[in-house]
Request: fold
Amino acid sequence: MSIEVGSKLQGKVTGITNFGAFVELPEGSTGLVHISEVADTYVKDINEFLKVGDQVEVKVMNVEKDGKIGLSIKKAQDRPERTERSDRPERPSGGHRSRQGRSHDRKPQENFEQKMARFLKDSEDRLASLKRHTESKRGGRGARRG
Reply:
């Protein structure tokens, strides 16, 4: 059986690193499950989810020309992926539009150059004000007494 992108396979966790887990696939090949592909939730420590020797179902995400195999545990699970897809279009469209509308009411969107120009102007104004205050205090006392 050849390893093809999109196929689901059973594998055994052979090693764990801070960035993912190595899984031995049928026919002796090994692939990597990146830490972001272990679970649907945020994974800070992969050891909380996997141990060496665990049997896992993985989905082949990519096969590189040099033989590296990218795997996913979370995409091999059918049910969580389907519920996420049905929820996703509703959340961002409703919430995103209302947030976007509010931000446009406050201020028109600026491009990078406009933001940088505004920042530089504010910065120069503050620096000039600071110099005026410090120079008048220093120069007024020492220069007139001597």
